[in-house]
Structures are given as C-alpha cells and as structure tokens.
Amino acid sequence: MPLFDSLYNFARWLVQGPNDAEDLVQETYLKGLRSFASFQPGTNFRAWIFQILRNTFLNSRSKLERRMTVAMDSEGDGTELAVDTETPETILMHRSNSQLVQRVIDDLPVHHRETLLLCEVEEMSYQEIAEILSIPIGTVMSRLARARKAVRESLLSVPRAPLFED
C-alpha cells in the first residue's frame, strides 16, 4: 500500500493513539479508493492522499476526541542493546528528552502540529504542505515558524531536575 508508513506516522501524531491512527489510515485508503477516479494523473499523489487523511481526521475529530484516552507509557518498548558509550543514566536522559519533545509537540494546536510534522517528519516541501492543507505557502511558513517557536519556548521553559540526589 503506497505511503502506508508515512500516513500511519502522521495519523498517529494527529490522533495520538495507535488504534485511532489505524482506523484513520484505513478510512483514508477506503475514501481514496472510492474517489480514485477524481485523482488527476500527473498531479502529486502523495499530497492528494495526505489531504484525504487530513480531511478525514478533521471530519471525525469530535468523535475521536470523545473516544481518546490517555495511554500509559510502557517501559518495555522492546529490548535495548547496550552500547559502550551509553550508561543507564544517559539512556534515561535520552528517553525522558524524547518523551518531553513528544509531549510538547502533542500540546501544539492541531494546525501547528500537522504543519510541523509534515515538514520535519515527512520532509515535505512547502508546496506539498500547502496542497495538503489547502492553504497558501505563506501560511505554511508562518505556521511552521510559530510551531517551531512554541516548541523551542516550551522546551526552554521546562525546569531540569537532577536525575539523582546525593
């Protein structure tokens, strides 16, 4: 299935849960197949399918928000191989930093979060993002700047507590 991993990754950030993300991607493919006759050959398929995903998310947002629950972070995401340069302390710091960044991005308004993710995670051009979101390129750039600024300010404002007390 074309672009499945990218669509699932984007959906996961939008709905913030694996089950809802799977449902959103499935619904996106279903809608894409039903309306494939409207796809114009020679145009950007990636932008077209991402736009379907986004519109499906926006149309079902209130239903998804009612069903969403806060998931407990699991400690056992899989086995981690030990690396000579990593200590338990550095592993803990990396894990907590990743969780912090994810929480900060999760807290962004949806229109900033989706713009940031399409640019930074999916590595789409401003033109592709503008097509997907149906907004001008200038709006893409301003949303991206605001999203980056919000992430930066949030990360700088988080007090750093010592990992271990003496």
Polypeptide structure, described:
By secondary structure, this protein is mostly helical. It is 67% helix and 0% strand. The protein contains seven helices and no strands. The longest helix is centred in the middle third of the chain and has 23 residues. The protein is globular, with a radius of gyration of 18 Å.
Secondary-structure element pattern, one letter each: HHHHHHH
Morphology call:
globular
Radius of gyration over all CA atoms, rounded: 18 Å
Helix content: 55-70%
Distance between the termini: 54 Å
| Mean pLDDT, all residues | 79
The number of helical runs is 7
Approximately how much beta-strand content do the residues carry? under 5%
Record field, number of beta strands:
0
Helices and strands: which structural class?
Answer: mainly alpha
Largest sheet, in brief, is:
none
Low-confidence stretches: 68-84
What features would you highlight for this structure?
single chain; about 170 residues; mainly alpha; 7 helices; about 65% helix; globular
Quick structural gist:
This protein is mostly helical and 166 residues long. The protein has helices spanning 4-15, 18-34, 45-67, 88-106, 110-121, 126-133, 137-157.
Write the layout of secondary structure elements.
Elements: H1 4-15, H2 18-34, H3 45-67, H4 88-106, H5 110-121, H6 126-133, H7 137-157
Helix pairs in contact: 1-2, 1-3, 2-3, 3-6, 4-7, 5-7, 6-7
